[in-house]
Automatic annotation (TrEMBL):
NAD(+) binds at residues 35-39, 84-85, 115, 138, 173, 289, 313. It comes from Megasphaera paucivorans. Belongs to the NAD-dependent DNA ligase family. LigA subfamily. The gene is ligA. It comes from the Bacteria. Transmembrane segments: none annotated. The chain holds residues 1 to 330 of 667 of the full protein. This is DNA ligase.
């Protein structure tokens, strides 16, 4: 192993840089670079690690979800880890994802559910005998922050669901609608406070307030899209799950579709290239998920991401590159 090579030095530099930006993004809710720039640096690190797997360490940003969590809230260990998603940036990479799945599930019938990727933050909601008892951030994927009192202020999160189950975990995205985000930033500018860089950071900053009264004023909303484990609800697929979540009175994003072919998935994704800008909430991509839970289980997960899903990231918007301009001029 040549730890003095230029490539190794570059790897070390990238890890430090990505760690710093993750801290700004996840812990401080104040990114200094655009997501696209972060993603490109991350990709470069992944490429170097692919070339030199002997250099991979468990603390590399490619092996960890999120960032260190800050103090202030009680910590809660998730029953099942909350993972991130692998990402792709073009059609070719989507076709490669499809091929990997088909290589693993030879001759099986395959269906994909494609959902909008809501640009917010993932939370885990715990219900016991139908009663909401705890809300937790994703944190580092294993341990999150207990934000129960703040979650209670979000009106689109039901405090009771129609279920006798001892324990159900519903996962999804807390987000800030675009009009609330714009109003909040106008107010912050008036109050001579720094505006939030984007709705995602505004949502994260609002949800992780020590005073739930502040969270309550921030007009957050929630879309449900996952369970923290299959808990005897007899659900066999993502499609059935989304239906059941609606029956539990969660908001489920209505734009999801089911496809059998990746070429149709790609067409659907591109139908959102422009239209997504008219949505009342921010999206940063689309998530393609293998529909069948039994196939998902067989495909499994890495330490960081499921192998049965992928996020297609939309190209950066001009507004996102503005964040980059600011950091460059500082
Ligand atoms: P991610 O945002 O790329 O994807 C995973 C997340 O997508 C999930 O945890 C969930 O919160 C969310 N999601 C939204 N809709 C979903 C749906 N329908 N189904 C499933 N999941 C859905 O991964 P991440 O680990 O949360 O964050 C990494 C990303 O954060 C980077 O790719 C980068 O874009 C951004 N980031 C930016 C900076 C910066 O400085 N700008 C720093 C760190 C991270």
């Amino acid at each position: 192993m040549d730890n003095t090579s230029d490539l190794y030095q570059e790897l070390q530099k990238l890890r430090k840089l990505l760690e710093y930006h993750s801290y700004r993004y996840y812990t401080k809710d104040k990114p200094e670079i655009s997501d696209y720039e972060y993603d490109m640096q991350y990709r470069r690190l992944e490429d170097i690690e692919k070339e030199h797997p002997e250099w991979i360490t468990p603390d590399s940003p490619t092996q960890r979800v999120g960032s260190k969590i800050s103090g202030g809230f009680a910590k809660y260990t998730h029953d099942r880890p909350m993972l991130s998603l692998g990402d792709v940036f073009n059609d070719h990479e989507l076709m490669e994802f499809d091929q990997r799945i088909r290589n693993d599930l030879v001759d099986e019938k395959l269906e994909y559910i494609v959902e909008l990727k809501i640009d917010g933050l993932a939370v885990n909601l715990i219900y016991e005998k139908g009663k909401f008892v705890r809300g937790v951030t994703r944190g580092d994927g294993r341990v999150g922050e207990d934000i129960t009192n703040n979650v209670r202020t979000i009106r689109t999160i039901p405090l009771h669901i129609d279920s006798d189950s001892e324990h159900i975990e519903v996962r999804g995205e807390v987000y800030m609608p675009v009009d609330s985000f714009e109003q909040l930033n106008e107010q912050r500018i008036e109050d001579e406070l720094e505006p939030f860089a984007n709705p995602r950071n505004a949502a994260a900053g609002s949800l992780r307030q020590l005073d739930p009264n502040i969270t309550a004023r921030r007009k957050l909303a929630f879309f449900a899209y996952a369970l923290g484990g299959n808990v005897g609800l007899m659900i066999q697929s993502q499609e059935e799950l989304l239906q059941r979540l609606k029956e539990f009175h969660f908001h489920v994003n209505p734009e999801y579709r089911k496809f059998a072919d990746m070429s149709d998935v790609i067409q659907f994704i591109h139908s959102w290239d422009e239209r997504r800008r008219d949505l009342p909430y921010a999206t940063d991509g689309m998530v393609v998920k293998v529909n069948s839970f039994s196939q998902q289980e067989r495909l499994g997960n890495t330490v960081k991401i499921p192998r049965w899903a992928i996020a297609y990231k939309f190209p950066p918007e001009r507004a996102e590159t503005k964040v980059l301009d600011i950091s460059v001029s500082l």
